[in-house]
Design brief:
Number of helices of chain B: 7
Largest sheet of chain A: 8 strands, antiparallel
Strand content of chain B: 15-25%
Helix content of chain B: 25-40%
Strand content of chain A: 15-25%
Mean pLDDT of chain A: 92
Oligomer: heterodimer
Radius of gyration of chain A: 20 Å
Mean pLDDT of chain B: 85
Low-confidence stretches of chain B: 238-266
Shape of chain B: globular
Radius of gyration of chain B: 19 Å
Number of strands of chain B: 10
Number of strands of chain A: 13
């Protein structure tokens, strides 16, 4: 097999060939069967039963951006896992959250992380935020064949743009179509409810604490109305994953910090089940 | 029509070795020292962009002297190998030993095949461990031999003299400032026995710092931070957290990125 790089005992010519700084390009050239979208699948009847991850939300605040995800993975109407992770650091200044087929999503994230790291090592400096967002687009497009068989992956990409000195959010569709979102965004089955919630709560001048609280409120609303989204599980101490990216880089909130926010939100919901109210006019 | 001369295999190999050694000796020196918290690489290199020392993987760095285009292609090959291996198996399965073996095979193959000119490079592959005893440093000369080193190593021009100077003065438990100043002193000694004083902007300095909280232990020392350590004023431990040194040098955050899978711990 081409990918057996020990067969000659030395670096194969492909490794020493000058060329792209992209790991993705190298892999597509050298061992295309290892790409997430590089496998040919046999035809199947009806949808494939796989594990799905659901709701991811993001919101900007002055000085950065916050990306958060619930913890539930479902298979059909079953809860497959209660503490799944769907928000990952992509590199020092960006993060990716993924809704859709869990297995492929995790593989895609690993490859994306590696793509950014590889470029940085080869070139000696990191890609621009725009460049990172475009690389992710290419990778989603590579998965289109599987998406059409029902194995779709829909990511959300958020990062701190060091050049422009602000947080930015990018959302995608299954074909790799990319769009920058202003202020806030959500993907996944609970996204309709989360987006409605953030629409009422989000303002441009939010601070970091307010923004993290707003995304937890949005996830609470998504879990309230969408059966595939999990709310904070106070009994098992499973709380959403909340990642904050500022000019200091990526930071995942600790369990204590998130549980503080989640408990405060939950307490308030015991009084007002529909959450904070915005004025009618 | 001319008759080809007979050249004995011994003579052919000796010629090739001499050719490569001469090429390497023209380059400036590079030293690697173990210090209490890791491994420090110091090269005399006035260029800000063309590096002699680079990150390969989480705990592994690469340093080279000789012909830039030749070691650059080996560096990129090594990065591709490490990233592919980490992606195929796990990040833990990428080791300096594996990489050094691969380089040794590659250089050895090129050196002994008559078809290619021998590479004029000398490589170092180092991996920082949990303690100084677990650090690994491999030196790879042009002919593909492999030497397991400990403590301090010098390669490139004038390396014998620099190496013996280092050997007499180096200790494994030096702090970063001490090790760095010793390295710079040794690089400044030329073959005539005269001392030159090298300043921060003539040096390229990088670390594998086992105390670094990120999964990726490689870090470049730049600008003010480097100058302060060279001055020896209190030898402050390098500040963590990225921001300031990157901002100061105007460089992209190339030494900052948190280990991709590990960011959750930060």
């Amino acid at each position: 097999m081409a990918a057996n790089f020990h067969d000659q005992g030395r670096l194969p010519a492909a490794f020493l060939r000058p060329g792209s700084s992209s790991f993705l390009d190298f892999l597509s050239d050298y061992a295309p069967e290892r790409l997430p979208g590089g496998r040919s699948l046999p035809p199947v009847e009806g949808p494939v039963e796989t594990v799905h991850g659901t709701t991811i939300v993001a919101a900007t605040f002055s000085g950065g951006v916050v990306l958060a995800g619930d913890r539930r993975a479902t298979m059909g109407n079953m809860i497959a896992q209660r503490d799944v992770e769907k928000v990952f650091p992509a590199d020092e200044f960006s993060a990716v959250g993924i809704a859709g087929t869990a297995g492929i999503a995790v593989e895609l994230v690993r490859l994306f992380q590696l793509e950014l790291e590889h470029f940085e090592k080869v070139e000696g400096h990191a890609l621009s935020l725009e460049g990172k967002a475009n690389r992710l687009s290419t990778m989603i497009r590579g998965n289109l064949g599987m998406a059409l068989q029902g194995l779709a992956v829909v990511p959300m990409f958020a990062g701190y743009d060091v050049e422009r000195q602000r947080g930015r959010i990018f959302s995608y569709d299954v074909t790799g179509g990319r769009s920058e979102e202003l202020g806030f965004a959500a993907v996944g089955s609970g996204s309709i409810f989360a987006r409605g919630s953030l629409k009422k709560l989000h303002r441009d001048d939010l601070g970091e604490e307010q923004a993290t609280t707003a995304v937890v409120q949005a996830l609470y609303d998504a879990a309230d109305d969408d059966s595939a989204t999990g709310g904070p599980d106070l009994a098992r101490r499973i709380f959403p994953i909340v990642a904050v990216i500022t000019e200091d880089g990526y930071r995942r909130l600790t369990e204590d910090e998130v549980s503080g926010i989640a408990r405060a939100v939950h307490e308030a919901r015991l009084q007002l089940p529909n959450g904070p109210q915005a004025p009618v006019l | 029509m001319s008759t080809p001369f007979y050249v004995s295999p011994q003579q052919a190999m000796a010629d090739r070795a001499e050719y490569a050694r001469k090429g390497i000796a023209r380059g400036r020196g590079l030293v690697v020292l173990q210090y209490a918290d890791g491994i420090v690489f110091v090269a005399e290199n006035p260029s800000r962009a063309l590096h002699k020392v680079s990150e390969i993987y989480d705990r592994i760095a690469f340093a080279a002297t000789g012909k830039y285009n030749e070691y650059e292609s080996l560096r990129i090959g090594g990065t591709r190998y490490a990233d592919l291996r980490g992606y195929t198996y796990d990040r833990e399965d990428v080791t300096a030993r594996g990489l050094a073996n691969l380089y040794a095979q590659t250089l050895g193959n090129i050196f002994s095949s008559g078809a290619e000119k021998p590479y004029e490079v000398e490589l170092l592959v180092a991996e920082v461990g949990e303690s100084p005893a677990e650090d690994e440093i491999y030196r790879l000369p042009h002919d593909g031999s492999i030497i397991d080193e400990h403590g301090s190593v010098a390669v490139g021009g004038n390396s014998d003299q620099i190496g013996s100077y280092l050997g007499q003065r180096h200790r494994d438990d030096m702090d970063l400032g001490e090790a760095l100043r010793l390295a710079v002193e040794s690089l400044g000694r030329d073959s005539g026995g005269n001392d030159r004083t090298l300043t921060a902007d003539q040096l390229e300095v990088a670390l594998l710092d086992r105390k670094r909280p990120q999964q990726r232990k490689f870090k470049r020392l730049l600008g003010r931070q480097l100058a302060e350590l060279l001055d020896g004023a209190g030898t402050p431990a390098p500040a963590e957290g990225g921001g300031e040194e990157a901002a100061e040098s105007g460089a992209a955050p190339d030494e900052g990125a948190a280990g991709a899978e590990d960011g959750s711990k930060d």
